[in-house]
Amino acid sequence: MLILSGTNSLLMNIVKNNQEIPLVSIIVITYNSGKYVLETLESAKVQTYKNLELIVSDDASNDNTVELCKKWVKENKDRFVRTEIISAKTNSGIPANCNKGVKASTGEWLKLIAGDDVLHMNAIRIFIENISNDDNHEFYCSNYFIINEESTIIDEISLNDSRYFKNSSNSQEQFQIALRVSGTVPPLTAIYTRKMYELCGGFDESYKLLEDYPFFLKLNQIGYKAKLINKKLAYYRKSQTSVTSTNKDFIFHPIFLYTFKFQKEYCSKFVGKIESIGFNYQYHLAYIFDFLNLNSTKFRIYYNLLSKLNPYVIKRKLFGCKNKHYYINNY
Fold it and tell me: In the chain, which residue ranges form alpha helices assigned H by DSSP?
């Protein structure tokens, strides 16, 4: 059952002539998404914002994802200004799949969403209303719901009090926080322009499972601030097949290896020497645990102990930290 309720009373007046409003590309990113992708596509179809293009970019699924999408698009293509389905022959990873989808699109604004997540029916319209009333150098995101495999809401995420949004007034302050804290901008609700995408070089394909963190951090770095819309405009699905699904047997999710690697290789260039050493230490600690098959809860006590021996953590505990403002944990 789709979760697409919303009321127009929440919306502001917007220009009704499609020729006068920007084209938005909804880009559905799929890999073995056959179980849920039709819900994602339906959530694009019922958007109250009309000037939409639909792109589906599939990363060599071995289930029926592509067949389902082709059939659905054939039946619903008249709803969109343009539709296209891209089907890769070999799996290339999430960032590469996102880049393929963007390159196939033509919209001024880009809205990427995974093939198991769902947009609120008013999501695009609310974003565009805020954009049309805001001349600042910004991209946008929102709060969101979490749903289970049966599409029932099981939780909700509000970012209003997150350090990234609450303690920053410009893009550079957000950049400093994002250097040290991943997951600042939820990709399922983020919307940005093609120009922004091109200026920051698209999604970094060096990190196969990590498309969002490097991308949004680099947007901050080149001067774009993330603005939070205080509404819940999407539904993130928590399931066994989600890339970020939690396995309670892990000390850390494997995706964090890519996060730590990115911080070691990129973020370390923009912090102090000891902090850079700390990034390197954290990555190599996680890498060793993963390589030796020690990424299991039964070894958690050792991992936590060794994490406390991180040179920068020791420095922060003993001597304080001038970058205290940018951390979640203040030592």
Answer: 37-45, 65-76, 94-104, 123-132, 163-166, 171-180, 194-199, 212-221, 255-265, 273-291, 300-308, 311-319
In the chain, the amino acid numbered 325 is H
Q: Which amino acid is residue 262, in one-letter code?
A: F
Interval 19-64: pLDDT, tens:
468 999 999 999 999 999 999 999 999 999 999 999 999 999 999 9
pTM of the predicted model as reported, rounded to 2 decimal places: 0.89
Structure tokens at 14: 């917007």
Q: Which amino acid is at 22?
A: P
Sheet holding 118-119, edge to edge: 118-119, 225-237, 138-147, 153-157
**DSSP letter at 191?**
B
What local confidence, expressed as pLDDT, does residue 1 receive?
42
List all residues 6 or more positions away from 34 whose beta carbon is below 8 Å from its beta carbon.
61, 63, 64, 65, 68
Residue-wise burial string across 250-262, b where 16 or more C-beta atoms lie within 10 A, e elsewhere? ebbbebbbbbbbb
Chain mean pLDDT for the chain? 89
pLDDT at 320: 67
pLDDT at res. 19? 41
Radius of gyration (Cα) for the chain, nearest Å? 20
Tokens of 251: 């000390």
Where the chain has pLDDT below 50, the residues are: 1-19, 328-331
Tokens representing 9?
Answer: 């009373």
CATH assignment of 8-237, among 3.90.550.10, 3.40.190.10, 3.40.470.10, 3.40.50.720 = 3.90.550.10
Residues 6+ apart with CB under 8 A from 123: 47, 111, 142, 189, 233, 234
Of 245, 324, 251, the closest CA to residue 287 belongs to 251
Q: Which token pair is 95? A: 């960032």
Domain range summary for the chain, segments of one domain joined by +: 8-237, 255-326
